[in-house]
Structure prediction request, 496 residues.
Amino acid sequence: MQLNRVVITGMGSISPYGAGVDCLFEALLAGESAVRPAPDLGEIGGLRARVAARVPDVDGRSIPRKFRRAMSPMSIYAVLAAYEALEKAGLPLAVCTGGDLGICVGTTINSVGTSEDFFADFLTDHSLERMKSGLFFKLMNHSVASNMAQTLGVTGRIMAPAAACATGAQAVGFGYETVSLGRQTRMLCGGAEEFHPLTSATFDVMHAASIGFNDQPTKTPRPFDAERDGMVCGEGAGILLLEELNAAQERGATILGEVVGFSTCSDPGSIANPSASVMANCMRAAVADAGLKPEDIGYVNAHATATEAGDVAEAQAIAEVFGSKVPVSSLKGHLGHTLAASGGLELIASLQMMQKQVLIPSLNLEEVAADCKGPCLLQRKEKCTVDSLVKNNFALGGVNSSIVVRRFNND
Amino acid sequence: MTEQEIVEKINSALAEEFELDLADMTPEAGIYEDLGLDSLDTVDMVIVLEGEFGFKIREEEEIRKIRTLGDIHNFVMAKKKALGA
Prediction:
């Protein structure tokens, strides 16, 4: 069966740095941290973390109220990112309605803030008389995808994968497979996340949230570092436009990269603790799917969230598959962990690195932890030509995903 | 509360909820064709009015006949009068 080639022609970002892909990449390149003090986390009893990587004010008013009324912040982030992706791709909004564009965008969990607001009121008297009509639409598991489709007028297929931190990467992978199989010509793919203190609490309960740098927010998280003490929750949306190669070329689109491989798999060993061997298998399968060999890979953008167990497993897995020479970095030190948005945002950044021929090191990686030694962990910016890269995202619940992207060659 | 105060309270609450421009909120403005509301908005409009005026109107037949902003003003004033408020 002849599969279609799938290229990336647009990308859009709402990140803890603000709105726009340029804003994201410039801040990453400058080594800026988006982690800020979050004193309001102190209002949650028992929650020890006091830092977060929140999206600064973004203006959602460009989205008509008719659509915005059904949106919690995560949908607003995703729609704004989608607008940017389409604009950057030079794809008129009218194309969205033609049926050949679909959406594959997910999130970790529906809007916790919206749920909290509703139940805080509902539990006072168990009355639904104050329940607004938009509540359900903000809380659907496919709210983000549906809101994007409604706003853009998309008539193709909608998918809304939910795999926590692997959501965005899975969404891009499923979008790649959809276009590859010819089911859609174009797919808007990625993930979105909105911050809530209980999200930080989820990780703090598992002793996986950073709590040791509350008075030095920009010093955490610390992927692969000896002093790492956990992750920092963030939010945002990273959306990519995937397009069938011929369709992209016919309309003269600028091609930013080619998705050539994808793998996702379950790790049934533990719902919380990842296994290096399953991670390694996931990366190997993605590279094989691309028709490449590990030695063809020039950069690995790690998931590495700065947790004790996750970073060790990933470092071991990367070293096992790619050896000690392939440059590796994680962007969690800059962005915090934007969870479902991380796959899209970090893939966008990785594409930019490939285009601009510069690799961004892990922020806050000052001394490589003894148990993370093995792979080539970048600690300095590096000028480098990369032809193919791997983007990892691994999730609680035992979900792994790896994507392989190649510099576009019209061969 | 005077009739003018009731009108202002209604307009202000609806303007905030539905992001309307007060200048467009004339009594003759059609809530669908002029103010751009739809059926979901009318559900929320009832909740907003109930919250503002502290009465229950969701089940009232008269609600279904509302077509203009002036109809809303008149409905609320009649309801308040009936309640002796």
User: Anything to note?
Assistant: Residues 276 and 313 of chain A are 4 Å apart (CA to CA). The two ends of chain A are 19 Å apart (CA to CA). Chain A has a mean pLDDT of 96.
